[in-house]
Write a structure and sequence with these properties.
Strand content: under 5%
GO cellular component, one term: membrane
Number of strands: 2
Number of domains: 2
Protein name: GtrA-like protein
Largest sheet: 2 strands, antiparallel
Distance between the termini: 24 Å
Membrane topology: Multi-pass membrane protein
Structural class: mainly alpha
Radius of gyration: 18 Å
Transmembrane segments: 27-49, 61-87, 107-126, 138-157
Subcellular location: Membrane
Number of helices: 6
Strand order of the largest sheet: 1-2
């Protein structure tokens, strides 16, 4: 059995009656994969990189000095990016006939869109609407999540 099939079986065990009434299976798989990637894997990698790889040091690149927390974020991004891509390709959106290279490029574009949307959302809610930063981040995350799912379903991994 492939690892993706095992992951699907585990996720589908939690797709029980009350959840079935709330969302389709594909949305549930997307939510679980995103939750695991961005609520568990990413923070764990960040912790390890910040404390043991970057080790709280500043990095002077000659033209810019990178703070430890930003350096850790930059170093963790490729891991989170590829784990998110793999889970989307092999667990959530398995039926897409598009080749992996095209999907990877499209995924990169959609992630770039998510980053821009997050930035614009925070600027809009905090600076123009006067919403406090934490609620603004929650609103922005909700909007970005909807955007990300729709981009994945209809652009990156269309069936």
């Amino acid at each position: 059995m492939r690892i993706s099939e095992l992951i699907i079986r585990v996720i589908d065990c939690f797709y029980i009656k009350p959840v079935r009434a709330l969302m389709p299976l594909q949305v549930f798989r997307y939510a679980v994969c995103g939750g695991v990637t961005y609520m568990l894997f990413d923070p764990l990698c960040y912790f390890l990189f910040y404390n043991f790889i970057v080790a709280h040091r500043y990095f002077d690149l000659g033209f810019v000095v990178i703070s430890p927390h930003i350096a850790a974020m930059v170093l963790v991004f490729p891991f989170t990016f590829f784990v998110g891509f793999w889970l989307n390709r092999y667990v959530t959106f398995r039926q897409s006939p598009i080749g992996a290279g095209t999907q990877l490029l499209r995924y990169l574009l959609s992630v770039a869109g998510s980053i821009l949307l997050t930035y614009a959302g925070l600027k809009f809610f905090v600076e123009l609407c006067g919403v406090w930063p934490t609620p603004a981040k929650v609103l922005t995350t909700l909007l970005t999540t909807v955007y990300s799912f729709l981009a994945a379903k209809y652009f990156t991994f269309p069936a």
